[in-house]
């Protein structure tokens, strides 16, 4: 496992200051962030060429299971689409750093309930979107996220997350910033790593109590199935997001 050519950039809870022409606009709402520690050696083969696992303490990286509502996806500055652009989504994500020291996430899967956005995401951005039967329900402070895969599979892979949102976090810990303050994604494009930046306001984070977690999405993404409780459980009411155009990873 090689190292970046430069030291990783600092983790910043605030977005980059440089202006960015938006390629995509959207909002992420009612997010559940669940994270487990994993061995970087298990993560490295799953990352795009030119990237390595990003570690919090030099030895540990993480896998995230993130469930939320995508809201009104828009393209090239056009208004977001009410129906096709709004749907539940659940992601399995890893943490990466490229040769220029840029931190990002890598998606192992993105389960979504609208088929057309799934097809567009797979073809246009080469992201591993999967069509699934999904739901997000709220009762007071308790949220329930469900997902069962339809296509392309493995068919029947599922998740059910139930959590209770708690108090606002005044000052997140360094680990909580590391896991949430990510201003780009890495993906493979024509055999090379590409870098897709995003900007949004600082995350409003809440403590959360995990009431139920029954899932096999992480194992379906090629990682060891999580053992034990997550090391971090967070909730956020959400943020508006802008994605810029892709850039080469190196």
UniProtKB/TrEMBL annotation:
InterPro entries: ADC_dom_sf, DUF2071. It comes from the Bacteria. Pfam families: DUF2071. PANTHER family: DUF2071 DOMAIN-CONTAINING PROTEIN, DUF2071 FAMILY PROTEIN. This is DUF2071 domain-containing protein. It comes from Streptomyces stephensoniae.
């Amino acid at each position: 496992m090689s190292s970046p050519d430069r030291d990783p950039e600092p983790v910043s809870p605030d977005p980059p200051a440089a202006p960015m022409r938006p390629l995509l606009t959207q909002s992420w709402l009612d997010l559940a962030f669940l994270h487990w520690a994993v061995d970087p050696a298990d993560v490295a083969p799953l990352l795009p060429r030119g990237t390595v696992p990003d570690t919090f303490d030099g030895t540990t990286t993480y896998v995230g299971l993130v469930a939320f509502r995508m809201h009104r996806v828009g393209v090239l500055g056009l208004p977001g689409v009410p129906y096709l652009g709004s749907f539940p989504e659940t992601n399995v994500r890893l943490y990466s750093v490229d040769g220029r020291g840029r931190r990002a996430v890598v998606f192992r899967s993105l389960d979504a309930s609208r088929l057309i956005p799934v097809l567009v995401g797979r073809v246009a951005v080469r992201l591993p979107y999967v069509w699934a039967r999904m739901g997000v329900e709220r009762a007071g402070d308790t949220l329930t996220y469900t997902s069962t895969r339809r296509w392309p599979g493995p068919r029947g892979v599922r998740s059910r997350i139930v959590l209770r949102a708690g108090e606002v976090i005044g000052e997140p810990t360094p680990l909580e910033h590391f896991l949430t303050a990510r201003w780009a994604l890495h993906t493979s494009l024509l055999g090379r790593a590409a870098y897709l930046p995003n900007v949004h306001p600082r995350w409003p984070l809440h403590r959360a109590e995990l009431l139920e977690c029954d899932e096999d999405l992480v194992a379906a993404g090629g990682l060891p199935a999580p053992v034990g409780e997550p090391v971090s459980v967070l909730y956020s009411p959400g943020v508006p997001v802008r994605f810029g155009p892709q850039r080469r990873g190196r």
